[in-house]
From TrEMBL:
The keyword Transferase applies. This is N-acetyltransferase domain-containing protein. It comes from Rhodoglobus aureus. The keyword Acyltransferase applies. Keywords: Acyltransferase, Transferase.
Amino acid sequence: MSTTADTSHANTVQIRSATAADAGPVFELLKQLGTEYAPDRAAYDASFAHAVDDQATTLMLVAEQPGTGVVGYAFATIAHLLHTNGSSAQLQELVVDGTVQSSGIGTRLVEAVEAVCLERGVRQLTVPSRGSADFFERIGYRSTADFLKRVFD
């Protein structure tokens, strides 16, 4: 963030818990995630409702910019793990609109997720990241594992 223009977006953004009214804007951001899954609106609607309503096992935050609307979101899951002596969170999705990327909004979202995790007594936050490891390492994360997956059709 080397210029005033770069930081102005992050300074005007409000980070808050997602509500049901954010479903549409977050769906549009989801399309920018670039995964192998094409977003299906019906499946998304059910998952989004769960993410907003179940605060015991999920954390859904949005970044809202005045006059523009929702320009980013973070979605994390929380589980009780045996080896962490308590809860562990995993940042599943982090998306910032392409028009405001590299302006500090992603960092603000991650910091907000961390703050909520600390408030909830979460012991660790992990991030499975293939394409953005440099971003997370820059803000203090370190690589500790490889994630492998199997997709069930």
